[in-house]
Amino acid sequence: MVTSHNAEEIAELWREYEANASPEAKVVKDFDKLEMILQALEYEQEQGQDLEEFFQSTAGKFQTDIGKAWALEIASRRRKRQ
């Protein structure tokens, strides 16, 4: 059961995420971008289409070391398949 306290906590966490106000928010934002480019990579492989715009839209926007490292790995795997 969601109480008003829980609802306020969820709302506060959402505001924190939207404001990019904590290390956790930054990681979640990076993971969101990573998930998008992973889906684009899968779609490219399955459908044989070039979805460069998805990769360009995230280029240089990763904030965390883990996000940057994973984005580089995804880009490397994409280059190997082209």
**Low-pLDDT residue intervals, each spanning 5 or more residues:** none
Number of helices: 4
Helix-residue proportion:
over 70%
Over the alpha carbons, how many angstroms does the gyration radius reach? Answer: 16 Å
Q: What is the rounded distance between the termini?
A: 49 Å
**β content, as a range?**
under 5%
SSE sequence, one letter per element: HHHH
Counted up, domains total: 1
Average predicted local confidence, pLDDT: 94
Summing up helix and strand content along with how strands pair, one would put the structural category as mainly alpha
Count of strand segments: 0
Shape: elongated
Q: How many strands, which pairing sense, and closed or not: the largest β-sheet?
A: none
Descriptive overview:
By secondary structure, this protein is mainly α. It has one domain. The chain is 79% helix and 0% strand. The protein contains four helices and no strands. The chain has helices at 4-19, 23-47, 52-58, 65-81. Helix 1 crosses helix 2. The longest helix has 25 residues, at 23-47. It is elongated.
Write the layout of secondary structure elements.
Blueprint: H1 4-19, H2 23-47, H3 52-58, H4 65-81
Helix pairs in contact: 1-2, 2-4
What's this entry about, in short?
InterPro entries: HD_domain (IPR006674), YfbR/HDDC2 (IPR039356). The chain has about 80 residues and is mostly helical. The protein has helices at about 5-20, 25-45, 50-60, 65-80.
